[in-house]
Input
Amino acid sequence: MAQLIDGKQISKEIKDELKTEVQKLKSEGKNVCLAVVQVGDDPASTVYVNNKKKACAYIGIESRSYELPESTSEEELTALVEELNEDDGVNGILVQLPLPSHIDEDRIIRTISPDKDVDGFHPVSVGRLWIGEKGFLSCTPAGIIQLLKRSNIEIAGKNCVIIGRSNIVGKPMAALLLRENGTVTITHSKTKDLQKITKTADILIVAIGKERFITSDYVKEGAVVIDVGMHRDSENHLCGDVDFRDVEPKVSAITPVPGGVGPMTIAMLMNNCVETVRC
Ligand code: GUN
Output
């Protein structure tokens, strides 16, 4: 039987550690405050934003909510972000994505001060990550590193294969695994003979965006499989990019969906918020 990598439990451990740390910081007169900005009322974004605010409340991080109408212009949003950049009472700024199509997301991300970029999306944060400088780490890949470390899975010297090359998961994942001395391959939609490459993986990170795409034919016996996907199938069940039932018997460890990678993203966002006041 494969080891089940329990993201729900590990994220709880991290949040509890942060709660203790925030209490200590408060006793030293240091407050942690996250500004959460949502434009429009997309229901999925509202769920994510509420979960982030709930996690803040649990840990003892102050959250300031900015709910702007869908009609907000890029100039108005830019002005708010600039105001939050200047506000010494705000440590971290999170602008929930996606933004309405009339707003240039990249321009807004670049407006957030790199010192308050708790999502780790700003080009300065990305550059710092790649050259091994201290900076904010993209939350989902940072959460995956924690899942591996806290499950005692060695990364150094392992063949790590990533499926997906997004700026939010695939690329920062590669940088982080490299930093842990993994041997890293990134595959994507134009990769030829995907199966041949994924079967070399000791650690396979799947962020392909296709429901139950990865079957046992894609994995090596005894591999570790991390599933970043999240879908609702035709029977309304949550599932990932990995066909769990088919793959689980063949591997040494695997993340479930739900309860694997998902809960880690918010835990690492909270860690980035605390990081703003650590030094
Ligand atoms: N939308 C979906 N995931 C994320 C995330 O991690 N950060 C932000 N800002 N928006 C998102």
The first strand starts at residue 3 and ends at 4. The mean pLDDT is 98. Residues 229 and 251 are 18 Å apart (CA to CA). The domain at 139-262 is CATH 3.40.50.720 (Rossmann fold).
